[in-house]
Write a structure and sequence with these properties.
The protein is mostly helical and 174 residues long. It has seven helices and no strands.
């Protein structure tokens, strides 16, 4: 759950720091943020089911590590983004992380749980998301206000890499 909460903290930067970064640091119009959500949504609609079918045979560890790495790289690369195309490329990267990590994480928790406690395990899973939704945007905006956007995206990279490492160490190869 720790790795999931860390990944979700990285992911929820889309709710707070990403729009601030786009407008304040890159001087992009607010409408560009909407276009990024459209890109994210279109990728999910067009690619998620075929991607999940193609990766369904993967061990949980591989998918969880790769998903966390894609979050780390996608959001971390924002430290080097200079305009709309480079930002859009980062969205493509972390959207693939989203499509790989989130479905597998839910499946892994469900399979890990004893059948009689599956509800408790899934409750803890969603609680990790809720906690990340509370902490991620707040911590991100406070960090960005104090140290700047480049430092934020680099620390987000480190957090995502740490989550990938936790998944690699904790999740058994199946």
């Amino acid at each position: 759950m720790c790795a999931l909460a860390l990944c979700a903290c990285v992911f929820f930067q889309i709710d707070a720091t990403l729009p601030l970064y786009l407008v304040d640091d890159l001087s992009l119009p607010v409408s560009f943020f909407g276009l990024l959500f459209t890109l994210n949504t279109m990728l999910i609609i067009l690619i998620e089911v075929p991607l999940n079918l193609a990766t369904a045979h993967w061990p949980h560890r591989r998918a969880l590590v790769l998903g966390a790495l894609l979050f780390a790289v996608g959001f971390g690369a924002l430290a080097f983004a200079t305009g709309p195309l480079s930002v859009a490329a980062t969205v493509v990267i972390w959207t693939f992380g989203e499509m790989i990590l989130f479905p597998v994480a839910a499946s892994y928790v469900s399979e890990l749980a004893p059948p009689s406690r599956r509800g408790e395990y899934m409750g803890a899973y969603w609680m990790a998301f809720a906690l990340a939704m509370m902490i991620g945007p707040l911590a991100g905006t406070l960090f960005m206000a104090r140290y700047g956007a480049t430092a934020l995206w680099l620390i987000v990279l480190v957090v995502g890499l740490f989550a990938a490492w936790i998944n690699f160490i904790v999740v058994e190869e199946t």
